Amino acid sequence: MLDILSQSNLDIEQAHLTKVAKSSALVLLRIINDILDFSKIEAGKIQLESVPFSWQELIKELAELLAYQADSKKLKLAFYLSPQLPNWQQGDAVRLRQILLNLIGNALKFTKTTATSAGFVEVTVSRSDLNNHMEISVKDNGKGMSEAQIENLFRPFEQADSSIQRQYGGTGLGLSITHKLVSMMKGNIHCRSLEGFGSNFIVTLPYHEVPKQIDAADITLDRVKVAIVGDEDKFETDLQNQLRIHEAQCEIFPREVFNAQLITSQQFDYLVITAEAFQQLTTEGKEVFIATSRCKYILLDNSQAVLPSPTNISVSHLSLYPYYAYKVVSHIAALEGLIELESTHEVTSHPSNISMPSIEEAQAQNQLILVVEDNLYNQDLFKRQLAILGYQCIIADNGKVALQLIEQYSFALIITDCHMPIMDGYEFAKTRRTQEQTQALHYLPIIAATANALSGERQVCIDAGMDDYIAKPIVLQKLNAKLKKWITTDIHHNADTAISISAPAVDNPQELHHIDLAILSEYVGTDKEIQSIFLKSFVSDTKNLFDQVDLSLPERIRDMAHQGKTSAKAVGATQLAGKLAELEESIKDGKPEKVEALLNYCLALFDNAQAEIASILSVADLP
């Protein structure tokens, strides 16, 4: 509800008080979760999961979660991932995230930037000297600890000294929980610290490498050449290593000998440079940006200062901190049109600025949401949050009512609580999935919304037939991300068919939205004749792929989706590429009805894309 309040028209004092209230609520929630976790560990109720996860994605999540905390204290937070350590591993990513959040959160809490010294927190994940073990290091230059204080670190409800609780708050449970989780994972944790100079927590854990997973954001930069202007900082070597892992050609040029003409003559596609290095070079009178160069420039900076650059040069800005290499890698991939560029801006629109569709309009646009929730407060909260995001919803008090409403309305998505009277969320999801299978109904995505923090809860939801999971209290930005992930606005459902398609009937190519010509131009240039050849080839090749599909052969569907998503990305059919990636991933779930529904989605999107390409090329139909 504080998220809702912060979106309204508040004066400066009201906005400040709202921010303080939200911060206090989150602190209280963390204390409650710590106590619950500690109790569950002591009672032996926590079971570790073992699922494939990506370190790149885990680090990205951590960086985004901790960015505000680090930035508010002007701290340099950096993550380094060793190229010798496998990115894809088998383990409990949720508990690993919890361990890292505890350690990094403490480091940020006890570190500060002064007039004479920049505070930093460095997280390094690397291979250990022990066979099949990894080492996680969290290092800071904060206040540090004495040997006597270190002895009490991992005891429950203990902190280094009593003044810490008064100054920083907390339960003293975080490190105790971390210690116990590390032990459950058959690892160990220790701390090196020097009072006044900082601390270094080191966790050693066994790891199990798994093959590279089928991933919608699989990035290959084999045609990309990147130059990094170096200042002998750790990040340059780390970034070079990660770019090379993604098959990019990458070279580091020391700032002292940097020559912009050399970058141009060697035909680099991208130049990555920090704002600090840029300012030093310009102060020295050296040229950095060249107007005639084909090179694109990526400027890494955290300040809001506007740095001078010619208007006819391609310069994109990225925040340097929190630093993690995958941020730069994915940014380059987005500029290359390989993935969609993610927005890092928070939702800031006010409800009055958003046009709320009626129920009829929402159904026509495939944006009507069914919320299954028995708590009146939560019902009101969902209505307000969805209104801010521009979505219309209908509320059901329990699963039984929800099943009746599904027969009356055409929904794009369902968000359901798990614990309700009459029919809970689990039974509701199972019943709906059975109906879809036995009555040939269209597949409705279901997102579980629950405050249950027990390990394994997400898997229970998935096993019941739900597609995704969002934790209460629900954060507006996270809810927005889930809706964007699962709602496809171009597909319209009705009671008779799984999917009803309306191909775009638009004469002006600028108004079309299934093909992004800007992405196509990044791949093949702006020559219309060459673009036409690629678009026709895409239609022909994709038709052949779909013609080979057999629902009884999941592997063939997976291969088709894998090939199709790549070519769809290349021509700018980003919606189709995204759904093909989901289809590829769904094969692993072993749910035929979900595979069939996603396949139908993809066919519908391809038909729409094909119709749009025909309009772009000004032809009646394509062969």
Automatic annotation (TrEMBL):
<keyword id="KW-0067">ATP-binding</keyword>
<dbReference type="InterPro" id="IPR001789">
    <property type="entry name" value="Sig_transdc_resp-reg_receiver"/>
</dbReference>
<feature type="domain" description="Response regulatory">
    <location>
        <begin position="368"/>
        <end position="487"/>
    </location>
</feature>
<keyword id="KW-1003">Cell membrane</keyword>
<dbReference type="Pfam" id="PF00072">
    <property type="entry name" value="Response_reg"/>
</dbReference>
<dbReference type="Pfam" id="PF02518">
    <property type="entry name" value="HATPase_c"/>
</dbReference>
<keyword id="KW-0902">Two-component regulatory system</keyword>
<keyword id="KW-0547">Nucleotide-binding</keyword>
<feature type="modified residue" description="4-aspartylphosphate">
    <location>
        <position position="417"/>
    </location>
</feature>
<dbReference type="InterPro" id="IPR036641">
    <property type="entry name" value="HPT_dom_sf"/>
</dbReference>
<dbReference type="InterPro" id="IPR005467">
    <property type="entry name" value="His_kinase_dom"/>
</dbReference>
<dbReference type="InterPro" id="IPR011006">
    <property type="entry name" value="CheY-like_superfamily"/>
</dbReference>
<dbReference type="InterPro" id="IPR004358">
    <property type="entry name" value="Sig_transdc_His_kin-like_C"/>
</dbReference>
<dbReference type="GO" id="GO:0005886">
    <property type="term" value="C:plasma membrane"/>
</dbReference>
<dbReference type="GO" id="GO:0000160">
    <property type="term" value="P:phosphorelay signal transduction system"/>
</dbReference>
<dbReference type="GO" id="GO:0005524">
    <property type="term" value="F:ATP binding"/>
</dbReference>
<feature type="domain" description="Histidine kinase">
    <location>
        <begin position="1"/>
        <end position="209"/>
    </location>
</feature>
<dbReference type="InterPro" id="IPR036890">
    <property type="entry name" value="HATPase_C_sf"/>
</dbReference>
<keyword id="KW-0597">Phosphoprotein</keyword>
<keyword id="KW-0472">Membrane</keyword>
<dbReference type="GO" id="GO:0004673">
    <property type="term" value="F:protein histidine kinase activity"/>
</dbReference>
<dbReference type="InterPro" id="IPR003594">
    <property type="entry name" value="HATPase_dom"/>
</dbReference>
<protein>
    <recommendedName>
        <fullName>histidine kinase</fullName>
        <ecNumber>2.7.13.3</ecNumber>
    </recommendedName>
</protein>
<keyword id="KW-1133">Transmembrane helix</keyword>
<keyword id="KW-0812">Transmembrane</keyword>
